[in-house]
Amino acid sequence: MTENAGTTARIALSGDWAITGVSTRLSELTAHLHALVPRTPNSGDASMGPEICLAAVETIDASGCQLLSVFFDHLRRHGLSPRPVNLPGHVQACADLLGFAPVMERTGF
Question: DSSP class of residue 39?
Fold first, then answer.
């Protein structure tokens, strides 16, 4: 779900982000991308960007981390700076273990 609070959009992700459920997430992320890209500032100010709330992510593995990494990178290429928020311990632990910690940090790569 994409919500707009002032000038900051908030995307709440939930559910299964492991290999068993990640294939269904691509269309969800594509819809979020289409909702956000028209809002891309013309000035290229990367300080603007959506908050990506991960509080309701139940499971995640390398497949989910990779998909989120590609999504965050695509947002950055459109001048946005995604900010992951509310990371559950298991999401952070998986990101740390698999080398995706920079993706899950507020500043990204």
Answer: G
For the chain, the C-alpha Rg in angstroms (whole number) is: 13
Contact 92, 104 (CB under 8 A): yes
Beta bridge partners of 84: 52
Strand 51-60: give its sheet, edge to edge: 2-5, 8-17, 51-60, 83-85
How are the residues of the chain apportioned to helix, strand and coil, as percentages rounded to the nearest 5? 45, 25, 30
Q: Where are the alpha helices (DSSP H) in the chain?
A: 25-36, 62-77, 89-98, 101-104
CATH topology assigned to domain 2-104: Transcription Regulator spoIIAA (3.30.750)
pTM over 0.70: yes
CA distance 57 to 62: 14
**Rounded mean pLDDT of the chain?**
84
Q: What is the predicted pLDDT for the residue at 41? A: 54
